[in-house]
Write a structure and sequence with these properties.
binds adenosine monophosphate, Pantoate--beta-alanine Ligase, Chain: A,domain 2, 6-stranded parallel sheet, 284 residues, Rossmann fold, 3-stranded antiparallel sheet
Length: 284
């Protein structure tokens, strides 16, 4: 496994792979790798000749009051984990090389960036879209792998790739969960023992609402109410940023359940930690 820290070298290395006719699977991450990340890497390993993983805690996708400095960094363990999975290249760029002085470009993906998390994290999706564009330009992957855990991110990236004719297939992989249903996340490390127990309310509540959706008699407003009131029963939840039913295509809140697919999406604060989760329910 080769570790590359210089963007230009990453670009040259990818060019060599492509010249040999090898397909490249790419998994961008912010590190502190867990089984969720590893599932993406295994999928990329199974579907491509070459696998590239990046670790980059992207300053541009954190707001000034967010956890950029505190975000978990665990590079030595991460290197051991990806080495075990037999990846070819690990790309760990320095922020100063990704955003040298004078950097001025930002990719804006319209309304999709403004909904759900976009309402609470100004500039977040511009930071994400900009860094993903840079990484795709450096790695030139055949396929790039993203987790459904960050559903809005997959919608924003897919839209951008389509709009800008980027030559890459976006593969969305299922959310990996702990045994009690909590979606794996690098931010789960912030949780106290009590908060970790309380965090199970997210998946439990979504499962409850999903079951109600399948009965076919429920109405959107009633299910939103059910989501919110179940979440409020957990006293450690300090704020509900959003919790409702959305169109998986437009991310607009659903007033009626007339689509085939419904996205149940939640963002809450549990103490000082912000947790998101979602469930895609197929009604057909
Ligand atoms: P991050 O390091 O949080 O930026 O995540 C890197 C990639 O891993 C993103 O595409 C995430 O959606 C994905 N990911 C994070 N957590 C999970 C999970 N529990 N299951 C599946 N994919 C995940």
């Amino acid at each position: 496994m080769e570790i590359i820290r210089i963007p230009r070298i990453m670009q040259n290395t990818s060019r060599k792979y492509l010249q040999k006719g090898q397909s490249i699977g790419f998994v961008p991450t912010m590190g502190a790798l867990h089984e969720g990340h590893l599932s993406l890497i295994r999928r990329a390993r199974a579907e491509n000749d070459i696998v590239v993983v990046s670790i980059f805690v992207n300053p541009k996708q954190f707001g000034p009051a967010e956890d950029f400095t505190a975000y978990p960094r665990d590079t030595d363990n991460d290197i051991a984990k990806v080495r075990e999975l037999g990846i070819d290249t690990l790309f760990i760029p320095e922020a100063s090389l990704m955003y040298p002085e004078g950097f001025a470009t930002g990719i804006s993906v319209g309304m999709l960036s403004g909904r759900l998390c976009g309402l609470f994290r100004a500039g977040h999706f511009m930071g994400v879209a900009t860094v993903v564009t840079k990484l795709l330009n450096l790695v030139s992957p055949t396929r790039s792998y993203f987790g459904q855990k960050d559903f809005q991110q997959t919608v924003v990236i897919s839209r951008m790739v389509k709009d800008l004719n980027m030559n890459v297939e976006i593969v969305v992989c299922p959310t990996v969960r702990e045994i009690d249903g909590l979606a794996m996340s690098s931010r789960n490390r912030y949780l106290t023992l009590e908060e970790r127990t309380g965090a199970t309310v997210l998946y439990r509540t979504m499962t409850l609402v999903s079951a109600a959706l399948h009965t076919g008699t429920a109405v959107a407003a009633g299910l939103k109410e059910m989501l919110q009131s179940e979440l409020k029963r957990e006293p450690l939840i300090t704020a509900i940023d959003y919790a409702s039913l959305y169109s998986p295509e437009t991310l607009e809140e659903l007033q009626e359940l007339d689509g085939k697919e419904v996205l149940i999406a939640i963002a809450v604060r549990l103490g000082r930690t912000r947790l998101i989760d979602n469930l895609l329910v197929n009604l057909s």
